[in-house]
Amino acid sequence: MAKLWTIIKREYLERVRSKWFLIATFLGPVFFAAIIIVPAWLASRSKATSEVYDITILDATGTGFGQRLAAAIAGDTTDKNKIPQVLVLPPAELTKAESTATRDVMSKKKTGYLVVTAQTVAGETASYAGRNASSLPDMSQIRNALRQTILASRLEKIGIDNSRTKELTFIPLEFSTDRITDRGRGGSGMASVFFGFAIGFLLYMTIIIYGQTIMSSVIEEKTSRVAEVVMSSVPTDTLLVGKVLGVGAVGLTQQILWVATTYVLLKAREPIMAKLGAPTTTFTLPEISLGAAILFLSFFILGFIFYSSLYAAVGSSVNSEQEARQAATPLMIMIVFAGVFIQPVLLNPTGTTALVLSLVPVTSPIIMPIRMAVTGVPPLEMAASIGFLVLGCAAALWLASRIYRVGLLMYGKKPTMREMARWISYSR
Amino acid sequence: MADNAIDIEGITKRYSGHTAVRELTLRVPQGSVYGLLGPNGAGKTTTIRMILNIIAPDSGTIRIFGQPFDDRRITERMGYLPEERGLYRKMQVRNVLKFLAELKGVRGREADRRINEWLERLSLKTPEKDWGLAKVDELSRGMQQKVQFIGTLLHDPDLVILDEPFSGLDPVNAQALKDTVVDLKRRGKTVIFSTHLMDNAERLCDSVCIIARGEKVLDGAVTTVKEEHGRKNIALALAGDGMQSVASILRDRSLVRRADDSNRFFEIEMAPGANPQVLLRRIIESGASVQRFEMIQPSLHQIFLEKVGGNAPVGEGDAWGRVEEGMTGHG
Prior knowledge:
Strand order of the largest sheet of chain B: 6-7-8-3-9-10
Largest sheet of chain A: 4 strands, mixed
Largest interface: A-B, 31 and 36 residues
Helix content of chain B: 25-40%
Strand content of chain B: 25-35%
Distance between the termini of chain A: 22 Å
Oligomer: heterodimer
Strand content of chain A: 5-15%
Number of helices of chain B: 12
Helix content of chain A: 55-70%
Low-confidence stretches of chain B: 311-331
Shape of chain A: elongated
Largest sheet of chain B: 6 strands, mixed
Number of strands of chain A: 6
Radius of gyration of chain B: 23 Å
Number of helices of chain A: 19
Distance between the termini of chain B: 37 Å
């Protein structure tokens, strides 16, 4: 035990003292602050941009629909620059007008153009083309204005007074979303998605970074032959476990520092947002119970053990960093596979894909915490996921220790998969 | 039993496709300097790794100081210097040494005290400069080798195992190593080293074991080995260019089995049953002026060549090349 501690201590202290660790630890929160503040800042800009006014309305309705639409897009503003330009024309000239308008957009005279026809008045179709076509707030403002204007025309047709239509069709709705889980209602939907994303991303990054750290550390010991000296003093399994735990503790330290600083930054978020000139929206962190925190921690530790022991095995079987990069590709694919599913699972945390991925040890260390963050996970699924992951860790450690103890002493050419499979059967 | 530092009884280690060590039995007396000799790839490193319990033999037993070799407390009485040396490059020298000491059960202040002592003894710590505070990769190659010695000896092991300790050493460090080995022996420690440099082995070792292709060729005390395995050889040196005149005599296969030109003298191996006195008489009769005619014991080098080189080419031989590849590669 004393020797295991010696190995853990060396791995931990040597890394925590390194410049690299300090830099990463301080840059991390800046990064997290960015991913928390920037989306909120963007969200605060969900009112349409000024570009939405800089469009041309090609009005082929012959009913003055275009003028009304322009007024609806402009809203209550009296600023003349904020009223879109309207071009009234007969339907026959529409094609020509569209190509002129396209050229205007291409030469940056205008942002875009909106075509309204008789079908638009009937509530069927309308079309928009422009540089800001991918801006959701802009498009939703145009869509709302279209709806409002169509509704107003219909109301007028059935004889409702022009002055009243405006008040009837004006609906400045603010839509707030709240999440309900098995445990009740909590936090805003947006906040929990951010939170889930942050957790998933944190685990994903940490596993990649520290998995590769372990791999490099094993390669260093092997190529410098320090491994042989250490192996003459302690069993190889102790060395392997000491490494995984020592480097894991570094990862954990870094995460705790990250989470703590991010928490402080989040507390100080409102003043920062105010400085950026963005309106402060209420953004409450989802409350994390002690039980949930322990579960997050368990998934991190187990996931780390699973991947880092495999990384150690890869490190022991190669002779250089270059070889290692290639040999670690299958592992990388496994992790990236999990990473690719972060977003789909965030969007549909209770679907079959999410369920399966949160049970398979390869993906569960990343996917299950995300599900936990955004939805309630039934205790049975949780228990099964942890159970499988523990089994997965045991298998990974077993496999790694068999490869590790042979690989560390094998110099020369890179082993093939078949040779590595044979190592597993070696006694020692 | 307890008189032996190491008792190895019929150990075998197989890798797929070849046998690295076959039925090897050897005993290393306590307090002796023991040489494990053999060409590259003979199984020396594999044997050493088994003694150190880094790998386990497929069959056979190893006892160290009378204890089973996998008794973990035994490892704290052993010090090991691997063939190719290296340390954690980014670590401070002092921290590396402390780490190695702790792995051998020496901790805290005691470790610090010994590290200081050793750093001073090998002049890595002088009033001007304490290399202990530098990082390993700031040290010269020679200094790194010194640090590695310290790491091997810091816990004052009773059994010191050095794998090819002389390879890559500069003459100053090589001398320091020899002095250290002698000093260890004086203090009752047992030292085993593997080498293919017979000169060093002959000078330093009390006993040797020659292995080739994973099998023991011969072993025993150096004096016994020489008596038993070497025929009495003759060192012959003649004044001037007298060698020319005796060339025909040396070619007489009824008298001389082999004559080895060592430049300053010939090392002559007599033919079986031939009388050295007859040889001397004939040389004198040939008119040559004899400066040296001495009955000498064959060198370990000669025994080695005879025993190992007899049925396989020495040095770069293909046969050995293959064995070595098999042992250190992934076959």
